[in-house]
Amino acid sequence: MHKLKTLMVIAAVLLLGGLSACASGTTDAGGSGPNQSAKQTALQGSNNAYAKIPADQIETAGTDLDFIWEPKDPFYGFNKSPIVARVHIESIDGGRSFSPVANQYVFPQTVGKMTVREVYKGDIETGTQLNYSRVGGTVTYDEYWNSLNKAQQEKILRLNGGSKPTDAKFIKATIADDVDIETDKEYIALLIPQTVQEGALKEYSITGCQHGLREVKGVGTEATVLNNDTKTWERLDSFVKLP
Questions:
Q1: Residue from 201, 228, 233, 231 nearest 218 by CA
Q2: Which end of the chain offers a freer environment for a tag, N or C, measured as fewer CB atoms within 10 Å?
């Protein structure tokens, strides 16, 4: 196994405390090989900060997560989320490992801006542009390293002969079976509002991983949403309770 991949898998497991936006549960580590172009090439699209990062400078750290999710209830996510909306992803502004909301280092996240197209539940307004965050993102290796506590760093150092790994400049931290968010696409998103303590920044966490971000096409009640597990398109009212 590639040395850096092994170390990144260990680090990913140690960082799972920041995964509450997906779900809670037990975890097992897994990882993809280095520089796999299909998974690591930055997604195309306008206003995508990840598109500026050369694929050969990115290493993937993959992590498995056991969801607390009720697959037999199609409206489980809708009922659990305070806000459910159709949103257009305007930008991917980049990744971060330090959350200003939690005021601490977290499992890497992707942040950007989205515009609300339709609201199915909650107190946001159609037409407004909002900040979003989502678990899973690409950050510099130094940002990833700084998110580890001293004991975690020392464990990696021991496995790497006492030195800090330098194989990759960026780390793409992902959750197994999750999907990448893409600019210039519309999704049905399960959202949780979050505010920095000083109130200077408000953002909406897209929760539920692959279950909470489903691509949508069509309009009105005739719209369909993509099931990220089966890769099939389903009726909007199979996922969202319509008036």
A1: 233
A2: C
Residues in the chain: 243
What was the pLDDT predicted at 134? 97
Q: How far apart are CA 1 and CA 69, in angstroms?
A: 32
d(CA 89, CA 144): 25
Summarize pLDDT for 52-85 with one digit per residue, the tens: 999 999 999 888 766 667 778 889 999 999 999 9
In angstroms, what CA-CA distances link 72 with 22, 23, 77, 238?
A: 18, 17, 11, 12
pLDDT tens sequence across 95-119: 999 999 988 999 899 999 999 999 9
